[in-house]
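Okay, can you check this protein?
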Amino acid sequence: MTVAKSYRLLKTIMTTAVDDGVIRRNPCRIKRGLAEVSAERTVLTVPQVFALSEAIEPRYRALVLMATFTSLRWGELCALRRSDIDMVARIIRVERSLTELENGELTLGPPKTEAGRRTVGFPELISPAVRWHLSCFAQPEDDGLVFTSPAGAALRRGNFRRRVWLPALRKAAVPLVHFHDLRHTGNNLTAAAGANLRELMARMGHSSTRAALIYLHSTDERQREIADALGALAVEEMRRRPAEGAGPQADRARNRHGAGKMSREDQQQDWGNGL
C-alpha cells in the first residue's frame, strides 16, 4: 500500500471517529501535503439512491432515503425516536446521537454542538417509505427507536456495514460508497435545490461555514442558468417599467434585445457614455 493510500485510509477512519463523536477533530490534516488525497467524496445520483433503497433489506429502505434527503449523520439516525418525527409537518427533530465507543458500549447523548440540535424537513417524495417503516419496523412506544436491528436492538455500524450495506451496494450495482456518503449526496442535492449558506449550515448541523461551503461550488452549467435567469429578469423589468427607464439609453437597450443588433452610432454613443 502506498503512502497516499495509507494516509487516505487513516483519514477515513479518523473521519468516522469524528462523526461518531469518539474524537473532537480529525488529526489527519496535512497542509499542502499529499494533495492527491483531497479529492471530493463520492456521491450517488438520485436514481442510484433509489436503486440502493430497493436493493437493501426492506427494514433499512427508509434509513437510506432519510440519510440522503435529510442529511442526518449515522449516529443521529440511529438515535431517532418515534416522537422525533412529525409526519404531518414532515419534519425531524434532532435531539440526540448514538455513539459506539471503542469498548463496544453504545451511549446516547446530545449532539456534539448546539448547532447539531436542529429541525430538518424531508420531502413528500419519501413520506410513504417513512410511514411504512414506522408501521412495520419501528419500536411501538413514542420513545421507541425508529431504526433497529432485526432483533430490535440499536444499530451498530460494523454489523450493518458487513451484513447489510456492502451486500446492498453490490446488488444495486452502485459505487462502493460509505454510508456517510449519503449525507454528502444529500448536501449536494440541498445546495443544488437553491439553499443558501445559512440554510445549508442549519440543515447539516454545523456552526461553521467551512464545511457548508464545500457544497456551494459553482459549475459551468449553473453559471449559465444564473446568467440566463439574470438576463430574463432584466428583460422582464424593462417590459414592465418602460416609463421608468433611463431615457434613450434604456430605449436602445430594449431595441438591442429585440433586434439583436445596434447601429454604429449607438455603439459609439454607448462607449462615450461609459457603457
Notes: The longest helix spans residues 220-240. Residues 3-37 form one domain. Residues 183 and 241 are 45 Å apart (CA to CA). The chain has a mean pLDDT of 82.
